[in-house]
Design brief:
Oligomer: single chain
Number of helices: 23
Helix content: 55-70%
Strand order of the largest sheet: 4-3-5-7-6
């Protein structure tokens, strides 16, 4: 049932949603160049080294290309397959762990709500690292949690069991560096502190087999790390650790800074609809913190969540590795029938219910409004999304008020699947204005100039344009582009209106044929664009 649920959640729109800017297109294009060059050690976007993240996601995407058999020119959905499968595996791993620790009902509810989470439905459709990171982190923590449960119960721990967790941790390092070790390390350290008076800390640490585990992580990570360090003359570590990671830890990298409390607020939307149970269940989780499964989930989620809050650089999906534990706690509280009795608890409950209702209505009405504004008027998908959001939100609030939690969870999951299906399969792919790269690639093909001897882009340099056209597209300043364009008959230039005057001035009297224009919105910059398609003629 969970597999079928994930298929219903993650598949719609996987092949219809165009490449998004900027991270997804950068990852997919770098993987494409690996396949084109046959070099699976170095990571490049066009001619520029891409050393911000390790190689794991590029290997997974290259494997997907090889599996499908369409070669480097595979469409974007092929590069998204690892994220799709990783999201599915994360849901199953959570269920496998939760049913042994918290029971079948709690595990199934938490896993279904993870599959329905807005953030995972976004990440499972994008050729990025985050869904795969979730899989690796959930796998590692699920196994370390199983080891903890065995130690608490006084049962023997098979020696291969913790090593499987360390293997997941090594995969996490290859995908996104220190995040999986950070979450796992904080969880184990928190348990060690919390259990110090219970006499099981030493037994748990021994059962994890840290020496053998670290050796296994080294076997997984070090061969590629040594190879890339030699090839890049040490630039990979300098760029990834000294550049990307250090910048995010010391300031708001790439204008993504936010104060502490950011994730606590955005979780209402990112973890919707399951955020309702998480919010309502936090007081219960604190009351029941002596239960082994509650204790472990708190150690998994809380220290890492606080760490993410303290990091200056913030994006809404960064706390995704904490979500499985939070949903287990929320499902445990809901199915235990927890309701606050204090006045403060009732105020908190009202805030949580209001946040859930507000996000549900905002999603449905926002999608309908977006479709109306940019899609040329109302459509069945837009109206359907609004109706689903309103009806599902109202039904969940009514069922929760009546104490029918299991039915409320069912409505949450079914409503989320219908809403996401409308959004990702119909509404978002159908809004042409927000996909100028797709429109440009289609126009080049229609005009018969996609294979022009030289292709340039001036003033519009989004990575999706590289992925949808060709690797050797030259993105440069107006003056340099004009010099190349002038000297190469048959060259085609895509010139954004803001750069047209400088381009024409540098071009002089060279012959130019205006083949048409593409208008749209550059979502990455939040600005409209008007791009001319120009061809060099004698």
């Amino acid at each position: 049932m969970l597999v079928l649920l994930c298929l219903a959640m993650f598949l719609p729109g996987l092949n219809r949603l165009p490449p998004t800017d900027r991270d997804e297109s950068r990852f997919a294009q770098a993987s494409r160049q690996m396949v084109e060059s046959g070099n699976y050690i170095d990571i490049r976007f066009q001619d520029v080294p891409r050393y911000k993240k390790p190689v794991g996601i590029y290997w997974l995407q290259s494997a997907a290309v090889a599996l499908v058999g369409e070669g480097a020119d595979s469409p974007i959905w092929v590069y998204r397959l690892p994220s799709f499968l990783a999201g599915l595996c994360a849901v199953l791993l959570l269920y496998g762990f939760g049913r042994r620790f918290a029971g079948d009902d709690v595990a199934f509810a938490a896993s279904a709500l993870l599959a329905a989470a807005l953030v995972l439905n976004i990440e499972s459709r994008l050729a990025k690292t985050d869904a795969s990171l979730l899989m690796a982190t959930t796998g590692a923590l699920a196994i370390f949690g199983t080891v903890y449960a065995r130690v608490v119960a006084g049962r023997a721990v098979p020696w291969l069991l913790p090593l499987a967790g360390w293997a997941f941790l090594g995969v996490g390092v290859l995908i996104k560096g220190p995040i999986t070790p950070m979450v796992a390390g904080l969880a184990v350290a928190s348990l060690a502190v919390a259990d110090r008076g219970l006499g099981r800390t030493a037994a748990y640490l021994r059962a994890l087999r840290p020496v053998s585990g670290l050796l296994l992580v080294g076997v997984i990570v070090l061969p590629w790390l040594i190879a890339i360090s030699l090839i890049s003359n040490g630039q990979f570590l300098a760029s990834s650790v000294g550049g990307d990671l250090a910048t995010k830890l010391t300031g708001g990298a790439e204008s993504h800074g936010a104060p502490p409390g950011y994730y606590f607020l955005t979780m209402t939307g990112m973890l919707w609809p399951g955020a309702l149970l998480v919010g309502l269940g936090l007081p219960w989780a604190w009351q029941q913190r002596r239960q082994p499964f509650v204790r472990f989930c708190l150690a998994w989620a809380v220290p890492s969540f606080i760490a993410f809050e303290l990091f200056p650089t913030k994006l809404p999906h960064y706390t995704l590795p904490c979500d499985p534990a939070l949903l287990l706690l929320g499902a445990g509280a809901a199915l235990a029938g927890f309701r606050p009795v204090s006045r403060l608890g009732k105020v908190w409950r009202g805030l949580v219910l209001t946040g859930f209702g507000g996000v549900g209505l905002a999603l449905g009405l926002g999608l309908a409004g977006l479709d109306w504004r940019f899609g040329g008027g109302p459509s069945v998908a837009g109206i359907g999304a609004a109706l689903v959001a309103v009806l599902a939100t109202a039904s969940v609030l009514w069922l929760e008020h009546r104490g029918r939690i299991a039915r409320a969870i069912m409505v949450m999951v079914v409503g989320a699947a219908a809403l996401y299906g409308a959004a990702f399969a119909f509404i978002l792919p159908g809004i042409d204005a927000v996909w100028p790269s797709r429109a440009l690639a289609a126009r080049l093909t229609d005009l018969g100039v996609a294979d022009a001897p030289t292709l340039l882009a001036v003033g519009y340099s989004e990575p999706s344009l590289v992925f949808l056209t060709r690797t050797d597209i030259l993105m440069t300043a107006p003056e340099e582009a004009a010099a190349v364009f002038r000297d190469r008959p048959g060259a085609v230039a895509l010139v954004e209106a803001g750069s047209r005057a400088a381009f024409d001035a540098a071009l002089g009297g060279a012959g130019v044929a205006d083949l048409g224009h593409v208008e749209g919105i550059n979502v990455s910059r939040g600005k409209p664009v008007d791009i001319a398609i120009l061809r060099r003629v004698p």
